[in-house]
């Protein structure tokens, strides 16, 4: 009713200015009491007479998720993992004997995704929060969150990340729908376009290339680089003409990436050109009595080499010629060398002495080539026997490089190699190598890690010198090992020369290891309960 | 009576179902206890742990000392005992033990009660049985009266006089304020109100003091503050006037006014035994005191009741009930028109982990219920309501709960917009109708618990939103 509204506005005005300056025109009296009386009446009347609001437009319902719900025990576990995640922020201090639940979330998600469960709706918000805070969780968390998670993320700007580049996301059009693909490619945001290119590439590699070439000249240099990078997945000879053309791109980074991709295609013209160059530099030494590798590093980096991606200016501290040599050998198909070295195997070639101190340079380049071309034979040869001290190995002493070489080997072989390495050299250098082994660790690998930990304990050092490996062991050891480890959880007498209190700390560390393994076994059982 | 003096419940047919992790964590007195309890919530540090069909859970937790701590929880209370020196309540060991019980059936299975736990459990049940006895006889309060009724009456009269003095002084301040204009309140700042609130504490009228303190915060509360300040001043004036003329009020309204002013009433209504579903539990800081509110819904009586408990500085309120369980218990209501507050009396048997949500209404019926409740208590901020068939929908200035069957809606109260519970509600709904319990008032609807209308994740599970 307009009259009451006016009356209320008049009350507010009078109250703001004060009844001395602005007495009430109407009503019982002019003073503040009359004003308060009237205001009280209005307030209670207004509250008692509230009407519902008009409804806003509804957001539409979340797409159905046909996956089965989690078994109740697994659901409780997830709630606990997520609750602990939000609680443990900022927790400091020694870890004690209790498992670190935060570290188990990725494993739990992977297992749940593998078994194809649907996320419980009420846990979607903490799940999305967890994925927002930890980028490493995102792919698994978003897969688990499913269509309802994505629907929810669309309503909250804090979860925008979920809408970017989620593979197979409902926001990407069906890759078979050419019109929709074309429209998003031309009008979409950069992240959407990268995701689209990836999705189309997975479905139809040629189609993705066509899409890319259609707008290539108009893209910005940074975008060209990212798009080019997405061709890494499903790279094939069909991509060669496009990549060859990208070798004359305006951007140096684009040129370098194109060259790198081409060199990973052993049949490509670029690989052939590089092979020809490398062959003129690295040869069997025919003058020496025994078989030796002779190296004649390039004397110049000509325009053709630069066009093929060779960077002419070395980083400070490196000689130009060795810099150029390294790049040539790295981009040369490894299959070239057995033919040039009288049919020798990779192993035999790697074992040949190299003249004039070029050995380190050459082997390092072969290592990079083996990783780039994912060649297990060469990787094996360059890794050498695991029992050899890293500094005497045939390829490289760098653990980072070695773990990359290892990654090209089949899983079981990788684990066996690292197991032997740990048995021979202990744990102090094994961390990076352990990180590339398949999880859960194969039995021999697990045994060698546990034995090495036990040896370290007997030597009397503190467990936190091995906290990295301990942490890995908690996540990667096979849960079935828990019973065998139980004996290590007791606190033995301090050995002589031991660091004070170390035995107690070791016992605590092993108890945490055992309880984490038990917990992982329980988690697996809970998730398997319905499908097993 | 369902309990014997031996502590062994007669009813053993229904096994005690485990709580959810959220239900356990809701009992933690503070964030650091949650964290510490979470770390103890796995099998690692525990030995000799077990539970039985009457809701007892126990275990030995290895701490830093040589002897493990003995922890025992009676989940029907819930009540806790632990040999650790912590003053937190429940301590991290009790929380950890309950988390283990909630999350890991393999680690904590049915067992025989060990002696050290049995003693405490028996003692507790004996006391519970003794407490329930007179309540069952309907003789509550008969023996609890003051020793000297005449002295008590004199004390009450003296206090009433002081409150009257306070109310008169407050009236003076309000009229001064309105005479000079609310615009000046913006500049006067907080000090003026703090001083007035302190005067009201001196006058032994904590209800008035609390309202005055809230007035002080309004000028800084954003656009539209003059309107809100006028409303609150007017309601405070209404309360003053009601107190000063309390002799002329009908008794139920007079009881409400006494409670609003801050006189403690006693729970002496006729006790109601029912199966009470715990709808919500939340704490609000109130000066140095924490107020805990627990909403209950009686399955048979259809009543909604509010349990209030208070915790002094740094301690959480003693009473805690996990959301979603149903307890067979007796409640004693407080006096006063439209009062929902009650006191928890004897409990019978262990809590059952699920219950049926209260029957729901539409948005229109919800605001109407609040309007009706204002007749009994015009100072009421909100009224407990269950909405059914509503969809959470984003609107231009927040969120709404829209009637699925119509085009009316309730705005979600601003206080709820920043809580994570809102997103839980949206997730549960997925754009489809849900049932929601909450407090409906003039600021909107504050959702406190939800049930998915169509769910195969677990039927009629109560999801707490706060």
Question: Could you please describe the fold and organization of this structure?
Answer:
The complex is a heterodimer of chains A (532) and B (466). With 532 residues, chain A is an all-alpha fold. Chain A contains 26 helices and 3 strands. Chain A has helices at 2-17, 32-48, 72-87, 105-115, 124-133, 138-153, 178-187, 190-203, 205-215, 221-229, 240-246, 252-263, 269-279, 303-307, 320-330, 336-340, 346-351, 359-372, 376-383, 399-407, 411-425, 431-435, 443-458, 467-476, 482-485, 502-528, and strands at residues 53-54, 282-284, 293-295. Chain A has a two-stranded antiparallel ribbon. In chain A, helix 7 (178-187) packs antiparallel against helix 8 (190-203), helix 18 (359-372) packs antiparallel against helix 19 and helix 21 (411-425) runs parallel beside helix 23 (443-458). Chain B is 37% helix and 24% strand. Chain B is built from 12 helices and 15 strands. Chain B has helices spanning 21-25, 31-39, 92-103, 115-137, 149-180, 183-202, 206-217, 225-244, 251-261, 363-376, 414-417, 420-429, and strands at 46-51, 56-61, 69-74, 79-82, 272-286, 289-298, 304-311, 326-333, 341-347, 382-395, 398-403, 408-411, 434-441, 444-452, 463-464. In chain B, the strands form 3 sheets. Chain B has a 6-stranded antiparallel beta sheet. Chain B has a 5-stranded mixed β-barrel with strand order 5-6-7-9-8. Chain B is globular, with a radius of gyration of 24 Å. Chains A and B meet through helix 1, helix 2, strand 1, helix 3 and helix 5 of A and helix 1, helix 2, helix 3, helix 5 and helix 8 of B.
């Amino acid at each position: 009713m307009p009259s009451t509204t006016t009356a209320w506005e008049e009350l507010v005005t009078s109250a703001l200015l004060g009844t001395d300056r602005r007495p009430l025109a109407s009503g019982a009296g002019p003073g503040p009491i009359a004003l308060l009386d009237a205001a009280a009446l209005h307030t209670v009347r207004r509250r008692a007479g509230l009407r519902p609001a008009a409804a806003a437009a509804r957001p539409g319902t979340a797409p159905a998720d046909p996956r089965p719900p989690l078994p109740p025990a697994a659901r409780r576990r997830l709630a606990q993992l997520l609750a602990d995640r939000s609680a443990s922020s900022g927790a400091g201090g020694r870890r004690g004997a209790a498992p670190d639940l935060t570290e188990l979330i990725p494993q739990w998600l992977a297992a749940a995704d593998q078994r194809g469960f649907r996320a419980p709706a009420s846990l979607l918000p903490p799940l999305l929060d967890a994925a927002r805070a930890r980028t490493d969780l995102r792919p698994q968390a978003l897969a688990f969150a499913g269509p309802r998670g994505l629907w929810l993320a669309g309503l909250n700007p804090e979860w925008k990340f979920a809408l970017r580049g989620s593979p197979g996301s409902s926001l990407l059009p069906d890759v078979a729908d050419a019109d929709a693909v074309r429209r998003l490619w031309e009008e979409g945001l950069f992240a959407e376009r990268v995701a689209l290119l990836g999705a189309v590439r997975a479905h139809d590699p040629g189609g993705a290339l066509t899409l890319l070439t259609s707008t290539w000249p108009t893209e910005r240099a940074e975008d060209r680089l990212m798009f080019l990078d997405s061709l890494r997945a499903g790279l094939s000879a069909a991509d060669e003409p496009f990549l060859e053309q990208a070798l004359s791109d305006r951007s140096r980074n684009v040129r370098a990436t194109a060259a790198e991709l081409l060199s990973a295609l052993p049949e490509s013209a670029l690989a052939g050109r590089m092979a020809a160059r490398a062959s003129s530099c690295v040869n069997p030494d025919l003058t020496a009595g025994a078989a030796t590798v002779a190296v004649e590093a390039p004397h110049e980096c000509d325009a053709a080499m630069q066009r093929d991606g060779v960077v002419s200016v070395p980083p400070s501290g490196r000689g130009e010629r060795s810099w150029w040599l390294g790049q040539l050998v790295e981009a040369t198909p490894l299959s070239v060398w057995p033919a040039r070295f009288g049919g020798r195997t990779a192993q035999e070639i790697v074992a040949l002495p190299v003249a004039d101190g070029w050995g380190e340079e050459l082997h390092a380049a072969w290592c990079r080539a083996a990783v780039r071309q994912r060649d297990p034979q060469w990787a094996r040869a360059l890794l050498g026997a695991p029992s050899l001290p890293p500094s005497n190995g045939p390829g490289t002493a760098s653990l980072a490089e070695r773990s990359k070489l290892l990654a090209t080997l089949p899983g079981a072989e990788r684990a066996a190699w690292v197991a032997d390495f740990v048995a021979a050299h202990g744990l102090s250098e094994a961390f990076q190598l352990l990180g590339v082994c398949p999880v859960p660790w194969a039995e021999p690998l697990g045994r060698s890690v546990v034995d090495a930990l036990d040896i370290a304990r007997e030597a009397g050092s503190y467990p936190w010198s091995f906290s990295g490996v301990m942490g890995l062991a908690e996540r990667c050891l096979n849960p079935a090992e828990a019973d065998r480890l139980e004996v290590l959880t007791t606190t033995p007498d301090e050995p002589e020369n031991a660091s004070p209190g170390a035995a107690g700390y070791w016992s605590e560390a092993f108890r945490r290891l055992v309880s984490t393994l038990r917990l992982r076994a329980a988690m697996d059982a809970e998730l398997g309960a319905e499908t097993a | 009576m369902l309990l014997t003096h031996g502590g062994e419940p007669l009813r053993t047919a229904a096994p005690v179902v485990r709580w959810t992790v959220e239900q356990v964590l809701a009992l933690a007195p503070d964030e650091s206890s949650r964290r510490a309890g979470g770390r103890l919530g796995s099998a690692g540090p525990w030995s000799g742990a077990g539970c039985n069909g009457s809701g007892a859970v126990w275990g030995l937790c290895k701490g830093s000392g040589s002897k493990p701590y003995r922890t025992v929880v009676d989940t029907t209370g819930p009540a806790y005992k632990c040999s650790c020196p912590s003053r937190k309540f429940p301590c991290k060991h009790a929380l950890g033990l309950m988390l283990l019980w909630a999350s890991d059936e393999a680690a904590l299975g049915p067992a025989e009660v060990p002696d050290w736990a049995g003693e405490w459990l028996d003692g507790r049940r004996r006391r519970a049985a003794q407490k329930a006895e007179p309540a069952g006889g309907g003789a509550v309060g008969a023996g609890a009266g003051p020793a000297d009724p005449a002295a008590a009456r004199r004390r009450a009269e003296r206090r009433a006089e002081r409150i009257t003095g306070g109310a008169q002084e407050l009236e003076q301040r309000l009229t001064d304020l309105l005479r000079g204009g609310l615009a000046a309140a913006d500049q006067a700042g907080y000090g003026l109100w703090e001083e007035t609130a302190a005067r009201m504490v001196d006058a032994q009228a904590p209800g008035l003091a609390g309202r005055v303190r809230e007035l002080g915060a309004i000028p800084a509360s954003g656009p539209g503050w003059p309107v809100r300040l006028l409303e609150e001043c007017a309601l405070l004036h209404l309360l003053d006037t009601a107190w000063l003329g309390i002799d002329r009020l009908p008794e139920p309204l007079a009881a409400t006014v006494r409670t609003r002013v801050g006189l403690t009433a006693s729970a002496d209504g006729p006790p109601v035994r029912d199966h009470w579903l715990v709808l919500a539990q939340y704490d609000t800081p109130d000066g140095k005191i924490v107020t805990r509110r627990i909403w209950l819904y009686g399955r048979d009586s259809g009543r909604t009741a509010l349990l209030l408990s208070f915790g002094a500085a740094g301690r959480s309120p003693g009473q805690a009930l996990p959301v979603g369980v149903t307890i067979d218990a007796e409640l004693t209501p407080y006096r006063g028109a439209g009062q929902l507050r009650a006191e928890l009396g004897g409990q019978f048997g262990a809590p059952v982990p699920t219950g049926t949500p209260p029957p729901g209404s539409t948005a229109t019926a919800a605001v109407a219920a609040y309007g009706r409740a204002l007749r009994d208590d015009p100072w009421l901020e909100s009224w407990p309501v269950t909405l059914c068939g509503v969809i959470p929908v984003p609107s231009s200035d927040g969120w709404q709960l829209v009637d699925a069957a119509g085009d009316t809606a309730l705005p979600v109260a601003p206080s709820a917009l920043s809580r994570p519970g809102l997103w839980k509600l949206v997730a549960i709904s997925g754009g489809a109708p849900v049932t929601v319990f909450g407090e409906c008032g003039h600021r909107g609807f504050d959702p406190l618990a939800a049930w998915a209308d169509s769910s195969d994740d677990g039927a009629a599970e109560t999801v707490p939103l706060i």
